[in-house]
Records
---
Amino acid sequence: MFPLSFDVNGEVVEVPVTALLNGGYAGRSQEDVAAHVAELAELGVPAPTKTPCLYPVAPYLAMQADEVPAQHERTSGEAEWALVVAGPEERDVLLTVACDHTDRALEVHGVAWSKQAGPDVLGRKAWRLVDVADRIDELTLTAWADGEVIQRGTLAELLTPQFWLDDLRERGLLKPGTVLLSGTIPMDAAVDQFAGSWRVELGDPKTGDVIACEYRVSRMPEPVE
């Protein structure tokens, strides 16, 4: 298993991923959660029985990639932040940007299945969570699909990193090698999500610092069967 590698204030931190989890329906505002449920319902995705959700994903799907192969044209990303547990101490919890690339055609049969059909693309830079914890709600999250802004908001719209750290601790998963993605913010329905390229940025208005991940989507050859 290849480790993820992060630039943390000039220090290279490598993290072999042992557990990968995707949060879902994780908005702090129930109105935003309902909007996301309605957005997915238009694609035929059944509503969850409870929120937030947590989907375990195969660890090898955590990638720092420039290209995502797709089996068909109905796949798309989601702007998210990610927690990366890089060691045993509080200062070892990293915060970075992520894009959960999801198979929307498979999603109508099961959200958990769809999460296994595409990678979680993470940024190559990260911040220590303790360094930004006092202004977590001010951090921004923006996504572009084929160069058009499709998602824009702040981390105040999502459940906090501390919420998920507490949840991981209760589940016995708060240990080195665990990566958790936050869930996403609403999309602009006027922008085509089935794009050939995605870019997501996590920004800190106080410092002007930005962490980005960006990739193109490539169609795989048709199966021979």
Note: The two ends are 31 Å apart (CA to CA).
---
Amino acid sequence: MPAVVNREECVSCGTCVEECPEEAIKLDDEEIAVVDPEKCTECGTCVEACPSEAIHIE
């Protein structure tokens, strides 16, 4: 399973977008992180980088 973002905990900082080595994350129109499951390799970089702990891998 790809990384999952808890929309209620995301603070729209963009750190995950910057840190993702696969460019699998972008901010949507509401500035909330969204993971592209086709690109996500479940490396966990975004989980470690997220300051609000809004991302996890199932």
Note: Residues 29 and 43 are 25 Å apart (CA to CA).
---
Amino acid sequence: MTPQRVTMITLSVLNIAVSREFYLKLGWQEAKGGNDKIAFFKLRGLYLSLYSRDALTSDIGMPIATRTTGAITLATNYESPDAVDAAYDTALKAGAIDVTKPAKTDWGGYSGMIADPDGHLWEYAHNPFWSFDDDGYLTGNA
């Protein structure tokens, strides 16, 4: 078994069509296997799935709205503050909720936050202490 690995992140959504369209407008490529209850987006080494709240509630056997699971944010890191601004603007045009406009941070980076149509929080960040490989994927500390 490989430790420290995530293979799927599933976001519960109220309207699969609206959420699917939002991520497509961000430029994400939908993977095969989706239907009117679930959509898959292949990332490097894992998938992001959007799953209708009704279907997820049925699968897990309990109402999602009555359970507190804690807050979570997802993040996308970029190579520069300008790239953060561009991604942030694209998200707003795709229908994102403006949470925090990109700005310099107290830890030396630059970030802003949006929410998708279901309120899932996404941070768009530039961390000058991290590096990227030739394909633009985060490799860790510079």
Note: DSSP finds three helices and ten strands in the chain.
---
Amino acid sequence: MFDEMDELVPDFDQRIRSAREAADMSQEDLADQLNEKASLIRKLEHGDHLPSDDVQTKLERALDITLTESSGADEDADWEGGSAVGEYTLGDVVERKDS
């Protein structure tokens, strides 16, 4: 369930500010467009506040940006190790405590 959730990117605050400035909008202009308070935009751009899912969606649409990165299955693809024949067993990844 949680493996396929998207995570907020670490630089979400910079992405929001850069996209807003590139669109030549003030924080107040963006807040008006999103029907949110300018103080929320300030807090987001300073990294003091995480956007709710609703606000995140509005920001992504209004500024044409992505604030999430996919997690889960992609991370598993980078894992290498284990069996020489390309198949893994439980013994390849588990270490027994009684040994």
Note: The mean pLDDT is 83.
